[in-house]
Design a protein that fits this description.
Layout: H1 7-23, H2 26-34, H3 41-50, H4 72-80, H5 87-101, H6 104-115, E1 121-124, E2 140-144, E3 147-158, E4 165-171, E5 182-187, E6 194-200, E7 206-219, H7 227-264, E8 266-267, E9 270-271, H8 276-302, H9 308-337, H10 347-360, H11 365-380
Parallel strand pairs: 1-4
Antiparallel strand pairs: 2-3, 3-7, 4-5, 5-7, 6-7, 8-9
């Protein structure tokens, strides 16, 4: 499967690569990760100036109105740089939920700030008991005197501590895992009813556990009907496709580091890359990289599929391929580097850590293998 970016996309990718090489080098990334917030808000504004933060939005909300496949070059570069930026949580997850569920007034109020990088949003959905169940929500929402309030705990919210606003899922009825009764809300995290506990994921991505105790909330669009759960599903599908595309960039970085290392590392008077077994291993990594490229394209293209079951199957295929081949590439990068590959001072180990997080987001490989198998079996009958 081939994708040829147009002239504008090539220019954006080239400009983004130069910006990230200058402002998000591996050394600067390590310093940023060691800082209090764990991310560079100035770089986020620079990404906005290039138009990166507006890629996922329509022209009415300050974006470009492009097809999802046009996100690929930017996500590749962000993955290659191992960038600690809120593109997926803010510009993909939260923005998609607002675009699908929000009223026109809410969209106009919230989305231009995402495009301009003046507002960071976080998608507070995952809970401890979910175990990759896409719609599992135990947090509850109730009305008191005309004001909606939410009680519950959200776990591992990407950029949850840095967010200006939260898009929160909660139940007005139904059981955990049921589409019925699921609703979306906008929550101001600065209020007393919200407690954020900052944390870092294994790849240094900033996140937070968020406890809500009678937190005031604004309904995002309609409370009843299929709109909320469909918006949650759309956000997760867009996030999954974006994770596949970013994972491609991460694997490309791991592969490039490995090729450079085996060509320069000397053993017994010659580069270790001169050994046939090493060369074969690198060749296998290259084949896996091409499979990853196809998976990233398939995932983004699947977002345009109108049939929900077909779209779900294609996305599960993409995530399964990402998990299988990306794990191989990043794992072999460590094997061929040896001990140095896992040191904090070297980027190869950080590629493995970042890929592990992307693999776990929105369901890991075994989860999507099970979903795909069940879907195909049901279709056969």
């Amino acid at each position: 499967m081939r994708f040829e970016p147009d002239t504008d996309q090539e220019q954006l990718q080239g400009s983004l690569r130069r910006l990230l090489q200058s402002e998000a080098s591996f050394e600067r990334r390590r310093r940023t990760a060691a800082g209090e917030t764990g991310w560079d808000s100035a770089l986020w504004r620079s990404l906005s100036e290039l138009g990166v933060t507006a890629l996922t939005l329509t022209e009415d909300h300050g974006g470009f109105g492009q097809r999802p496949v046009a996100w690929l070059p930017a996500l590749q570069e962000l993955g290659y740089a191992l960038a600690l930026q809120p593109f997926i949580p803010s510009a993909v997850l939260a923005a998609t939920a607002i675009s699908r569920a929000g009223t026109p007034a809410q969209q106009q109020r919230l989305l231009p700030g995402v495009a301009q990088a003046s507002r960071v949003l976080a998608f507070a959905h995952d809970e401890a008991a979910a175990r990759h169940a896409a719609l599992w929500v135990e947090a509850t929402a109730r009305q008191e005197g005309g004001q909606w309030r939410i009680d519950g705990v959200k776990q591992g919210v990407l950029f949850g501590a840095a967010a200006d606003l939260l898009v929160v899922t909660a139940r007005t009825g139904g059981s955990p895992g049921d589409p019925a009764g699921l609703a979306l809300f906008i929550v101001d995290p600065a209020q007393e009813g919200v407690r954020r506990t900052p944390l870092r994921l294994i790849d240094d991505t900033p996140a937070a556990d968020i406890a809500l105790h009678a937190a005031r909330a604004e309904p995002l669009g309609e409370i009843d009907g299929p709109g909320p759960w469909r918006a949650v599903q759309a956000a997760q599908e867009a996030g999954l496709a974006a994770a596949c595309a970013e994972g491609l960039g991460v694997a490309e970085r791991a592969y490039a580091l490995t090729v450079e290392y085996v060509q320069t590392r000397q053993q017994f008077g010659r580069p270790i890359g001169a050994n046939q077994v090493v060369r074969h291993r690198v060749a296998e990594m290259r084949v896996a990289l091409e499979m990853l490229r196809s998976a990233a394209l398939a995932g983004l293209l699947a977002l345009e599929e109108e049939d929900a079951q077909a779209r779900s199957r294609e996305l599960s295929r993409a995530k399964l391929l990402l998990s299988r081949h990306g794990s191989f590439v990043t794992g072999q990068a460590i094997q061929l580097h040896g001990g140095i590959g896992m040191t904090a001072e070297y980027a190869a180990g950080h590629c493995l850590r970042r890929f592990t997080v992307l693999d776990q987001l929105f369901g890991d490989g075994p989860t999507h293998a099970a979903r795909l198998g069940a879907s195909l079996a049901a279709a056969a009958h």
